[in-house]
Amino acid sequence: MAKTKTTFFCQNCGTQHAQWVGQCNNCKEWNTIVEEIIQKEEKRNWKVSSNKEKKTSKPLKVEEISLNPEERILCHNNELDNVLGGGIVKGAVVLLGGEPGIGKSTLLLQVALHIPQKVLYVSGEESQSQIKMRAERLDASTSNCLILTETNTQQIFKNIEEVQPDVLVIDSIQTLHTNSIEASPGSISQIRETSAELIKFAKETATPVILIGHINKEGHIAGPKILEHMVDVVLQFEGDRNHTYRILRSQKNRFGSTSELGIYEMLSNGLREVSNPSEILISKKDADLSGTAIASTLEGARPLMIEIQALVSTAVYGTPQRTTTGYNLKRLHMILAVLEKRAGFKLGAKDVFLNITGGIQVDDPAIDLAVVAAILSSNQDLAINPDVCFAAEVGLAGEIRPISRIEQRIVEAEKLGYKTFVASKYNKITIKNNSIKLLLVSKIEEAFATLFT
Ligand code: TYD
Ligand code: MG
Questions:
Q1: What is the mean pLDDT of residues 25-45?
Q2: Range of the structural domain that residue 179 is part of
């Protein structure tokens, strides 16, 4: 029998230490080092195994490898399927992280109830009746989903043998424990060991496994960093608990792109897929108001139309105030300086407030021109035609600069019914016969000579 051995782990970052110390020398947190019992590993010597055991794998040239396209199971949830790259791959292990109460259990239960395949939903966090109550809110009348409340992996595997599920969901990895080590559930070595068992199960039986993972106060998935390396896909569910919108991002995906993104709205009967995100980011108004402009931006690979609001007023106090929500304040200072110096607008003694509606933060430089438009519109108190949208960067010389993926943005703007698209003259646009009018400009004055008259 192997001898048991203990090691010291930091519960915050997962670093292994030879002895107990008060402060982790990796993440600098205090009092996070805990002694955990681990099994003594057998000495591995690669030469011994190559002598005694039969060879089971052999190296091949790339052209000799036959390609079997991976089989996927559709989740019947378009946003999730897109983020996964077209459904969940058989045998893949997906880790879904997010803050408490953001809706991880709701999302996966909703998917489990709508998938036609047999799903085993293992919960270590809630009782079967709690899950039943939640399922009733999600109104799924018939489903192939079985609920198990269990935290011991050996017991879970016994149930799996009996049920033979097509998909396994674990809520959450931090509640599981295995008999093979003695550390408490949620500790670094338990997370590592139980996830290794589940990954082995997934690969051997080609059953996809979805794990829910808690995140720590820095926003990373709690537990060893190695967990993120071991799984095939890492998804992050984010959003503000005070807003109803949630964003599903992929941080790592061995079977698809990480630039896809899913948007949901949390309603009283579960998560609604938002297929047209621009609807939530543009406020509906009856009268034409000055100080608003529509910008086209990209969130991941997805074009989004957002609304920029500006308020320019004479400064009441000595020093003018500049405040932004969702936009970089330094960039606003730069744009105001450009307007003052290159375009002759006297904004030096004015307060400027800038807001991006919908509570999102945008770094895309392509919204610069819309920021300029909103500021000038508020300053002159002239409304911009609501059918116009903007996508260009503003340079230090007051020039309008080209931006990336302009075609995608034009197609999105056209789809949403915008009539005029203002962009840089230097952008190469190859799409033709679009019904949207393109206004290509090279200077700030050119753009506004036509819009305000
Ligand atoms: P939950 O899925 O339990 O979050 P997590 O598993 O990430 O901790 O979601 C909890 C929140 O979602 C809770 O505050 C209530 C809300 N909710 C709804 O608004 N509508 C619903 O239909 C459900 C099931 C939950
Ligand atoms: Mg939960």
A1: 73
A2: 72-273
